[in-house]
Amino acid sequence: MSDFQLEILLKLNELGTIGSTLEVFPNIDPQIVLSSLNSLKAHGKLDYTKQDKNYFTLTKEGDEIVAKGSHEMRLLQLVNKFSKLQIKEVATHMGADGKIGQAKAFKNGWISKNKDNELTVSDKISSVDAVVDETRDLLVKIQKGEYKSVDDKTLNDLKKRKLITAKKETGFQVVKGADFSTELTKLETDLTAGMVASGTYKDLKFKPYNFNSEGIFPESGALHPLSKVREEFRQIFFSMGFQEMPSNQYVDTGFWNFDALYVPQQHPARDLQDTFYLKDPIKSDLPDDKEYMENIKAVHEQGKYDSIGYRYNWKPEESQKLVLRTHTTAISAYMLKKLAENPKPTRLFSIDRVFRNEAVDATHLAEFHQVEGVLADYNLTLGDLIKFMEGFFEKMGVTGLRFKPTYNPYTEPSMEIYSWHEGLEKWVEIGNSGMFRPEMLESMGLPPNMRVLGWGLSLERPTMIKYGVQNIRELLGHKVSLDFIETNPAARLDEDLYE
Amino acid sequence: MPTVSVPKQQFFELLGKQYSNEDFDELCFEFGVELDEDTTEEALKTNEEPELKIEVGANRYDLLCTEGIAQSLNEFLGRKETPNYKLSEPTTKLYIEPSTEQIRPYAAAAFLRGIKFTEKSYQSFINLQDKLHSNLCRNRTLVAIGTHDADTIKGPFHYRALPPTDIKFIPLFQTKELNGKELIDLYKQPEQKNNLGRFVHIIEDSPVFPVVMDNEGTVCSLPPLINSEHSKISLNTTNVLIECTATDKTKVEVVINQIVAMFSRYCAEPFVVEPVEVVSEHNQQSRFTPDFSSKTMEVSTQYINSCLGLEQPAQEICDNLKKLSLHATPSQKDGYLKVEIPITRPDILHPCDIMEDAAIGYGYNKLPKGEKLSSASFVAAPLPINKISDIFRAASAQASWIEVLPLTLCSHDENYKFLRVEDDGTQAVRLANPKTSEFQVVRTTLLPGLLKTVRENRKHTLPIKVFEAGDIVLKNEKLERKAYNERHWGAIYAGKNSGFEVIQGLLGKIMETFRTQWIADFGKAASTRGYWIEEDDSLPTFFPGRGAKVMFRPREGEDAKKIGTLGVLHPEVMKNFDVPYAASYVELNSEVFL
């Protein structure tokens, strides 16, 4: 507690009420008075109300008038003393003030002017000593603080004549507070280890806490929303017994990306418009398994395994072109080929990047993530696929699926998966699925009764819906906002995926 | 998938019903096409005829025009039978000369006689050719279609290849006679860039150009570019010659079949087509075109039922297949169906395609749900490198770094020059056909993506601390795919000062997570597993005297190896990436912890 705070309390104790701090503490800066009062008020020691005080002080010229009389009075006395005074002599006696005095004295009818340009006391004045100097009397009143008896017009007139100055002072009326005492205990802002150890907290007073606040957020790192959603999908796959495929191979061959999947070599997907080709390195090796290669050639050219084939000249050079994989299905094909060495029911998945040579816009990027599942088993039915998809999507809270016939070059039958979107009030496509074509599987050496289901969806789309992202470029890639990554909530696919 | 616009009014008349959008959507859904857009509202404003935009399967060339979609949906609804396409007697020949072997060796032709076009059907005829050209014909490289007013030309016809300057005719929509070379010049003009200019490359560099002529030497067309003005067809043409030239002998048949199948309905005798005798002895391609001979496929009912999880009698399967234009009857072979494949369905390659149609005919959403798949006997497992990456990710985020996912493609400069590194040609794979210079190489370091992310977030509170656990790609001649991914982890600190010690500390924290302690005296203080850093001035990305390599000894007694680098980034690097801060960076090869 500062000395001044104590002084306030002592004064309040003595007076009971401080009518105006301006009177009681006239020499203290009002700012200091206010902060001291606030501090004491927070402790409940006192309360106060603000009082503005308006008053006038005399200027230097005003002070002089009080001392010597007004200019007009001094001129009157001068004229009276010489009985006649040449106008040009006025300045000699009174300087610049003479001119004002002369004008006022004329206006008051105190003096007259004869034809020789001489000033004389007006005939109306019987006795100069009896003339009242109103200006000086006014100033004396104002000096005494009795300005309230002077009308505003006169005050303004005096201000204009630069005889008085308007002033304002802020003072306070102070009364005792509920906890008034002349002693002051400091309010503690926080409980400290020292207080806990010493037990002093029992005697301390604590400042009230502002509960209407967010607190201080911890400094923390964050995981990217896409990788959080990716982890949700991984956990779903794991819970259904799936193994993660070695999808860490972005560069692939025309063979694995297309030919192995029974995509003919003239298929539009292989256009430069859609697929990134490499110029360095430019040519891949062919797969080691020559029999498999021959099977692929045959099944494309003239057909095999009950297929009539695409009936064109299959060129190994086209297979050897290197591409950035356009789908993770290139890896699935490779894994299924490996499965053919020892066929058995198998479940595989991957979530990884794929590349498309597309024009970039709000929903398309040259690279994005594909979620893909592959399930191989004997004598699977389409109904098995449907049921399995229902189970898979149910784990992320999506139910009531419908399946629409569609076309994929490497699956037959192919089914687009739709779910009802409450917000959009329509069926929206949430994934694609199908049974891999026998031409693809039997070429690898898988037995004809082993059927393989495949399905896929993009990782970005459900993430964009989940986190309300409109532009894919603000999700994947360097244009992401770090604030967005730092503040986004946990990705729980089971919780209102389509809210 | 191609999208086909059909006039709404006419289309619903063809289907015999004014569908609500909801009902039509439903029909499309069950059949396997998609109503993309109904332009009714827009059309009201522009006073045009409302259209339906329907997305169809990329292998269903029979659905690329109004007539085709209507026919198929009518069959699906049981309102119509599959047309019985017939050939009339041929009246003329098309001679294919051996010279075409050099450029475009195959051709086929057919006549549609007594045809009556309406404005709509004429437009549809033109549109179908466009759709076929851009889809199945792969922008005319595989097949090019020419249609002619047959009454302006006289058979037999000749398909030959001639030097460009020997071919003279007035091309369609031109007024002046041009030779082949002048024609190329004309179509190479900038205003043709998105029009015929797109096809110039197909023949431009050949010493000979293909040309179809009539018996009097009148040029009919110069495929794959343009028909002649002389034989041009119009709304009033009654006899149409269709010729197709091709580099693919299978597709030329598919294309001519589709066109005649769709438009022979408007002939004087509906669904009757006049074939042309193609004489092509030099490559054994002499035949009559089009070929309507019956194609069949035998399919086991057991196979279909097993795939669908059903036990349908043969007749039920046949009924369902009929909805998809496949006429099936029990085969002589027990338990099999003999399925006739109409000329409109070249997408049927294998019994699985018939099986799919049997499923669509039955209804995907009515199929019994399988109960066979249990997850009990399968053991889940993550990919080992992903598990390592997850440890990096968790530890980095716990250490208050933010995970980012920049793109793996970047410009060559970003991967090299901007990092003050020379490309020695041994590492980065280069793209042949990127659409922008943003995508020239696959990154060989995570640094460019992280620096770009910092640049885009430079208004973020300082310091900026971001990391990525992701793949880089490196060349390797010895591999089948000539390149491989390597999983890396990189973290950057950018702020008012370089934060070198902070990055060094983060490295320590990460190494601790991987059970790896720091070893003093550059690895000499102990011979156990551990890591240390050594100054390395061979790294131009770092500020001189502030770059180091990270050394790792996996176990007692083993040689230490370099697993990454760290240091203060060179000010020029910061400037190149437009980041106005000082920064430190660490990058490790994650695979060493496998």
TrEMBL record, chain A:
GO terms for cellular component: cytosol; phenylalanine-tRNA ligase complex
Catalytic activity: tRNA(Phe) + L-phenylalanine + ATP = L-phenylalanyl-tRNA(Phe) + AMP + diphosphate + H(+)
Class of enzymatic activity (EC top level): ligase
Domain Aminoacyl-transfer RNA synthetases class-II family profile: 227-489
Keyword Magnesium belongs to the record: yes
Major site of localization recorded for this protein: cytoplasm
Source species, domain of life: Eukaryota
GO biological process: phenylalanyl-tRNA aminoacylation
The keyword Nucleotide-binding is annotated on this UniProt entry: yes
Subcellular location as annotated: Cytoplasm
E.C. designation(s): 6.1.1.20
A Pfam family recorded for this sequence: tRNA-synt_2d
Subunit structure: Tetramer of two alpha and two beta subunits.
Family, per entry: Belongs to the class-II aminoacyl-tRNA synthetase family. Phe-tRNA synthetase alpha subunit type 2 subfamily.
Protein name in UniProt: Phenylalanine--tRNA ligase alpha subunit
Species this protein is from: Lachancea meyersii CBS 8951
From TrEMBL, chain B:
GO CC annotation: phenylalanine-tRNA ligase complex
Pfam families: B3_4, B5, PhetRS_B1, tRNA_synthFbeta
UniProt keyword terms in alphabetical order: Aminoacyl-tRNA synthetase, ATP-binding, Cytoplasm, Ligase, Magnesium, Metal-binding, Nucleotide-binding, Protein biosynthesis
Cell compartments where the protein resides: Cytoplasm
Necessary cofactors: Mg(2+)
Keyword flag Endoplasmic reticulum: no
The protein's assembly and partners: Tetramer of two alpha and two beta subunits.
Enzyme class: ligase
Family recorded in the similarity comment: Belongs to the phenylalanyl-tRNA synthetase beta subunit family. Type 2 subfamily.
MF term (GO), any: ATP binding
UniProt protein name: Phenylalanine--tRNA ligase beta subunit
Taxon lineage: Eukaryota, Fungi, Dikarya, Ascomycota, Saccharomycotina
